Amino acid sequence: MDAEKKDELTQTPSVSEGKTAPHYAPEPSSPNDTIIQNAIEAIGMGRYQWQLLASCGFGFIADQMLLVSISLVMPQASKEFSPQYATLLPATQYAALGVGAVAFGFLADICGRRWAWQGSIFGVSVFTAVCAGSPNWAGLNVFIALAAFFGGGNLAIDLTVLAECLPRKWGFLLSGLACLWGLGNAVTGLIAWPLVVNFCCPQGATSETCTKADNMGWRYLYIIIGCLCLTMSIVRSFALGMTESPKWLISQGKLNEAVASVNIISRLNKSSVVLSVDELHHYERENPYDMQRTLRLLRGLFSGSRQLRSMICLILLWVLVGVAYPVYVIFLPYYLEGHGAKLGTGSTYQTYRDWSVSSTVGIVGPLLSAYLVQTRLLGRRRSITVTAWICAIFAGVFTTVKNEAQNLAFSSLINFWLNAMYGVIYGYTPEVMPDAYRAIGCGLTLACARLASLTSPFITTWGDVYSSVPIFVCCGLFVAIGFVSLVLPFEPYLD
Fold first, then answer.
1. Cβ atoms of residues 362 and 181 within 8 Å
2. Pairwise CA distance, residues 421 & 472, whole Å
3. Residue 274: how many CB atoms within 10 A of its CB?
């Protein structure tokens, strides 16, 4: 690397967001970590990062399609199979998402980011399509669990690989990328809308009157989503691609591979920066398959008072989000349907039209987040607080709507602010994880959210899915999220 450029980067803070804050590790970062980060800063934002951003965007879309499709399929499949507790189907998905997040997090920190990143979305595509062939309710649960296992690891790896290759001043893209959740919502709703209206059994149908031939709409939905995910998987692996994360390679002591990875990024970005292995500090490589090292991955996440406080707050934050988000989003179609008699026709057409409109509005929310997190007044932590409390306000007002226009307007506004809040939290989480433990850290926090989401099916199953109670539960959770975010110890790039 050019010596003058290297010295400049070592002495100069981040160019856009004030003083730079490190990825607070439980022990001081090694000199090699600093050299790799300085090289990424010197190379700058270019073709490689934009390709990686698009590839990770596929993961966000696939994750949301997987999550949202179950809420659209559940009412339709239950007509055909008549299970005793239809609304417990998401519990299967959330349990598998949690297991997948932890499993892929460990594997990505032990064996590398690249293969886990490429394989996760492929697994989602295969098993989502297989869901269409479910012969009964039990089979549907099994296939949904398999798809969710791969989906659980997908988003944690996306966050990890993107955070490790972005120059610091471009960190706001981690929050802005969440706009693709709204796109995933909208696309899934728009696909499901004509399929459910034209190829599913009518409202009030039971297993005695609803045959497979009359109820193919939800199966078509899973086939289409599976094909879309397969297409994204192929493009991600063969057209866009990625090199192994240089930060992970450094954490494994693979100096030559790390240098090669940095130089590939530089070459793709048409940068003149060239890193040499002679610039790195040599030390003994740990055995990546050592069980003691695996246990240290978890211990390292909770080492030091600030890191311990950070992890406790993050886990609590994700648990609250894990309950609030699905209680509102997964059961929104039921709420809209239940209020249709007062606020409109109550038809399937109106239910999915409102879903599609509110989801489309939600696309814009994370774009606002990307701006808010760069402002010194708010930063990451206060942006979470502001967006969470606005969600609480609109969710409370949502229960007082008097006509269909208000119903659609307030559900759209909640989706806007909900996605804005979620985007900041997703972007913040990998930014404050230690480099060596980032994948398992992201996987662990996401797993906590998924496991917490297991409560939402039970809340709605033994509550009234058509009442306002789940919405008021969300209000309280959003308020709590706002308070927890104020206790977070780290403010990246503004400390």
1. yes
2. 18
3. 13
Q: Which amino acid is at 103?
A: A
Q: Identify the DSSP state of 279.
A: G
What is the token pair recorded at 48? Answer: 């490689």
Tens digits of per-residue pLDDT, 285-314? 555 445 565 566 677 788 888 889 999 999
Enumerate domains of the chain plus CATH numbers: 18-487 (1.20.1250.20)
d(CA 207, CA 203): 12
DSSP 238: I
Q: Report how far residue 395's alpha carbon sits from residue 389's, in angstroms, rounded to the nearest whole number.
A: 10
Residue 97 tokens read as: 């998402």
What is the tens place of the pLDDT at every residue in 105-149? 888 888 888 888 888 889 999 999 999 999 999 999 999 999 999
With tokens 């806007």, the residue in question is: 416
- Grade residue 49 by pLDDT with cuts at 50, 70 and 90: very high
Give me the phi and psi of 22, to 5 degrees please.
-75, 170
Between the two ends of the chain, the Cα-to-Cα distance in Å is 28
Q: How far is CA 119 from the centre of its chain?
A: 17
Mean of the per-residue pLDDT values for the chain?
82
Are 19 and 493 spatial neighbours (Cβ–Cβ below 8 Å)? Answer: yes
